Amino acid sequence: MATQVLTGDNFESTVLDNDIVFVDFWASWCGPCRMFAPVYEAASQAHPDIVFGKVDTEAERTLAAAAKISSIPTLMAFKQGNLIFSQPGAMAAPAFDQLVEAVRAFDVEQAARESA
C-alpha cells in the first residue's frame, strides 16, 4: 500500500480506525526528510496491512503544532489508537524495519495494565 496523505481532516480517523499507523511528519525543503522518504515508501509496500501516513508540516501547520512537532522528520507510531513511539530524525532501513516489528509485537493492553 502506498503512503497516505494525512491532514487535519483525516488524521484522527486514520489513527483511530486502523490497528497500526505510522506517521511521517516532513517538509519538502528538509534534506533528511527526502533521504528518509524512499525508506518509508518501501516499508509501506512491504507491509500492506499497516497504514503509512505522511503529514506535510508546511501545509498542515495546525496539525504539526497539535502534535508538538519541533524537528523534522519526526516519526510516530500508533497502535490501537495509542501513540507508542515518537522520535525525530531519519532512520536507516534496517532500523525502521526493526521498529515496524517492535510495533507489531507491542501489547497495548499489557502496557496499560502495567502503567495502571
TrEMBL record:
Pfam families in the record: Thioredoxin
Thioredoxin domain mapped to chain residues: 1-105
Source superkingdom: Bacteria
UniProt keyword terms in alphabetical order: Disulfide bond, Electron transport, Redox-active center, Transport
Family matches, as InterPro entries: Thioredoxin (IPR005746), Thioredoxin-like_sf (IPR036249), Thioredoxin_CS (IPR017937), Thioredoxin_domain (IPR013766)
NCBIfam families named among the record's database cross-references: thioredoxin
Family label: Belongs to the thioredoxin family.
Protein name: Thioredoxin
Organism: Nocardioides malaquae
Gene behind the chain: trxA
